[in-house]
Design a protein that fits this description.
Two copies of one chain form a homodimer. By secondary structure, chain A is α/β, with parallel strands linked by helices. Chain A is built from 16 helices and twelve strands. In chain A, strands 2-8-7-6-5-3-4 form a seven-stranded mixed beta sheet, with helices on both faces. In chain A, helix 11 packs parallel to helix 12. Chains A, B: It comes from Didymodactylos carnosus. Chains A, B: Its cofactor is pyridoxal 5'-phosphate. Chains A, B: Keywords: Decarboxylase, Lyase, Pyridoxal phosphate.
């Protein structure tokens, strides 16, 4: 077991007492300022300097250079620390809001703080952050910290552009068009539509909304009041955002029919078809079937081809949520998991998950050309003037449910450009290999570790069974109740100490279990072994 | 008239021909690499280096440092150029997608490109970008380039966090809570709820959705099918996203009643009340009234206090869209424009507009505590485990319509922290002073310039009347048709040359006119004079 470096909270708190004083300069790590000085500016100290010394308030670039150089040096230090696998995921562990209020002065004052205090605050943010890019952060969003994404985000924020019109973001719009076309080609679609959305939940909302519009184009104008009674059918293991979308569009959760998956987490085509028939017998119109490629907890892939044939038979829109598993399309070894995708109507795919692109980057793709404009168009004349001197179909703003839209494409494009098709295939295959290694390791640790199932993808689900539970009847209620408390307690201890993080949850009739997703390319087999040791160390006395 | 520096497109195109060659190293500006070398790394050349030489693929920090230093040097150069008011807004002017496809190789190749080519691409992006931070970019989103926002975005992307749970973003969640509380206090609310959303359109969607839930809490579960017939009443000058929200939630655009504003762009309380009465007589339930603080085109402020009293009388949810004008609350000289805000139910306010915070940062605020959780909660057990060791109300994910959510708060917090309450008051007052200067200048240029109205806020709306139209009857159809083509043609010429950008649009019965919004603190009175000269120069022969 490695020794975890423990930092002293008083370091942080001492700094904070300075931060309230306006007389003593803050104690920034000297190397940050020294490096900044050496590089780009003769100014050694930002104490007393304010935003008025920055561009554009000052026309002199010196302070701007020193300030941004200090920010860069700070993040380089953070990145270097992150690369030390033995460093903690949360320095000093997770704290309460009141404790963070002791460390930070969150309040806004009448007079702004100087740039030294700004830098002090940003350094504190890095010091106290939950380091999701750390190789031993094996929680939701364990995609690591990708340097190409990071570079892209710096450029994106510098150009501070907006996707809504071609005239302000011509290159980014061309880039998005290219990237979405690549993604659709991987789906096996000749044509289609799509957009980058702020997350998978919004992508799924687009899918539900578009399916409704496809079935009932006059709802946009007239509303649902006098429409036929409609329902959606989804797998019970679909992401909860599909139910939220149903609530949002006025369908109501009661009109979402959930089909139980089988033991492997896959919903069966026959069960979907049965529900379609039952709904039809009740005079309900099924306008949407939703299944998943890579379910949230188990990582299961519903049988797309089988269900697509059923949906074609009944002429029902089929949506596949591949927010997590869509990236399986990137390797020839895994793309078969999505067989039949060429026959579906819409597909959610989040590069910010398995492709390690920084949050937020989610694609909603449609196997129907030009459909989004019909669904969402409002033709706001102040923004999408019909008399522009360029082809107005290049303005993407009127096909989205947003108006202004952040540039999410550059980080994806740059990462894909740099890694290439081969690099991403290798990425997916390495993660799968690590998942397999983790699964075998966990299995070998029986009876203290118990796996839930042979992992269909990268998700590895298992229980830790402490010595105290080894001799209790595993079918008893006592066993269930006690086992249910084990994973939360271990996670609490992990987070309080800060050494690592692994997610857990209940599912169906199962008590709380760990779901380890190693989607960070920085995570090594050694880190995986350490994770197993840590769980045992934190859990053996429970 | 200043001389605009014209750059040579062959510089870009020559570079591009290199980019297709795998043999010749790309010609990056030498100062970028030289600076990077001097600062942080002995490596002089990234040619042949790939992402595999970066963290975490390599454990050596050297290449990562050189690479990110080059990115920083690149953006510093961009920022310095931006500060040269005489430089063009779009170097070489706006081009067609095919022309950008000539400059860039958007395609993803089997094998990734090296880091030199990555840097080459990012430099080209900066070279070809439409420089929205430029002092003479007076189009939508003219908020400038804010160094505190930029620094915050670099830190945000480095921590690559997610707002959905406290456990992964504790400090950012505490920060968001503070900032939203400040904003609510400025609204005059003692209590309430809110969240940062991906843009004003989504904020307005939250408002409509929440108002519906407040009136009919069972719609979430049962859907709207058997609910009473409902309508929304909005001003005709409200942002189009309110109608889009109506389409989205299943209400339908037909159930949005639009009230015409008066000549000053303000909707009258009496007209709203009349529509409420008519709707009630028809048996329709009005669940939502939407008005605006700072309309998109004219910048008009609807009389909030008057309309709030009417809504209280009829017990109807009142939403104010202050995406643009909400920031008037920041100065004691303008906050009276929002008198009565203490009585409304919800309020949209985009710091990414008038507060110069980088895109995307929009707040939706509610004058109702804990309301969002009721509206949106789905209690997904895998993410919002009920048995966490901390207070689960700190997890904001279950009150949003997103699941994962980008950290939008740091850029707002850091900018506010650095500028202080006084700094933002001064910011708003300076922009107003510039708007007043612009208005007076435009008025003084009659008969070639004709103002639409005395500006209620920062928006200054006017026509350019070229000499050829001076002697035509201004009430004739010919005059309307010819004048309608003037602003588009002038803007086309501006964009083709790249020197500057000013927005235009039609409104109601008015032919196309310019709407100049100077919300960039970098824009000077001299820039404003240049803008007027440029419009005349581009338009006088039309």
């Amino acid at each position: 077991m490695s020794t975890i470096t423990k930092l002293n909270i008083t370091q942080i708190e001492d700094g904070r007492s300075n931060s309230k004083s306006t007389k003593t300069p803050l104690s920034l790590s000297s190397d940050l300022i020294i490096n900044a000085t050496n590089c780009l500016s003769p100014t050694t100290d930002l104490h007393g300097r304010t935003y008025k010394d920055l561009i554009p308030y000052s026309s002199d670039m010196n302070i701007t250079k020193t300030f941004l150089q200090a920010i860069l040096n700070m993040i380089l230090k953070y990145i270097e620390e992150l690369n030390d696998h033995e460093s903690p995921v949360i320095k000093n562990g997770l704290r309460t809001p009141n404790e963070y209020r002791q460390i930070f002065n969150f309040d806004i004052d009448q007079k702004g703080v100087d740039l030294n205090e700004i830098l002090y605050n940003t350094e504190q943010i890095l010091q106290t952050s939950v380091r999701s890019g750390h190789p031993r952060f094996i929680n939701q969003l364990s995609q690591g910290l990708d340097m190409l994404s990071l570079a892209a985000e710096i450029i994106t924020s510098t150009t501070n552009s907006n996707m809504f019109t071609y005239e302000v973001a011509p290159v980014y719009n061309c880039m998005e068009e290219t990237v979405l076309r690549y993604m659709r080609e991987l789906c096996g679609w000749k044509n289609g539509d799509g957009v980058l959305a702020p997350g998978g939940a919004v992508s799924n909302l687009y899918a539900v909304l578009t399916a409704r519009h496809y079935a009932y184009p006059d709802i946009k104008q007239r509303g649902v009041m006098n429409s036929p009674r409609t329902v959606m059918i989804i797998s019970k293991h679909c992401h909860y955002s599909l139910k939220r979308a149903a609530a949002l569009i006025g369908l109501g959760i009661d009109h979402v029919i959930e089909v139980n998956p089988d033991q492997t987490g896959r919903v069966r085509g026959q069960d979907i078809e049965n529900q379609i028939c039952i709904a039809q017998q009740q005079g309900l119109k099924v306008f949407f079937v939703g299944i998943t490629a890579g379910t949230t907890v188990l990582g299961a892939f519903d049988p797309i081809d089988e269900i697509a044939q059923i949906c074609q038979k009944y002429n029902i829109w089929l949506h596949v949520d591949g927010a997590w598993g869509g990236s399986a399309l990137l390797s020839s070894k895994t793309k078969h998991l999505l067989n039949g995708l060429n026959k579906v109507d819409s597909f959610t795919w989040n590069p910010h998950k398995l492709m390690s692109v920084h949050l937020q980057c989610s694609a909603i793709l449609f196997n129907h050309p030009n459909i989004l404009m019909n669904v969402n168009e409002m033709s706001a004349g102040y923004l999408f003037q019909p008399d522009k001197h360029y082809e107005i179909t290049l303005d993407t703003g009127d096909k989205t449910i947003q108006c202004g839209r952040h540039v999410d494409v550059l980080k994806l494009w740059l990462a894909w450009k740099g890694k290439g098709i081969d690099g991403y295939a290798e990425h997916v295959e390495t993660l799968l290999e690590n998942a397999r290694f983790l699964y075998e390791k966990v299995k070998s640790k029986a009876p203290y570790f118990l796996t839930l199932m042979d992992p269909p993808f990268i998700n590895v689900c298992f229980w830790y069974i402490p010595p105290s539970l080894q001799n209790i009847d595993s079918t008893s209620l006592e066993y269930y109740n006690r086992l249910d408390k084990i994973a939360p307690k271990i996670k609490e201890r992990m987070m309080t100490s800060g050494v690592m993080m692994v997610g857990y949850q209940r599912l169906d009739h199962y008590p709380n279990f760990f779901r380890a997703i190693v989607s960070n390319p920085a995570t090594t087999k050694h880190d995986i072994e350490i994770m197993i040791e840590q769980i045992h160390m934190f859990g053996k006395d429970l």
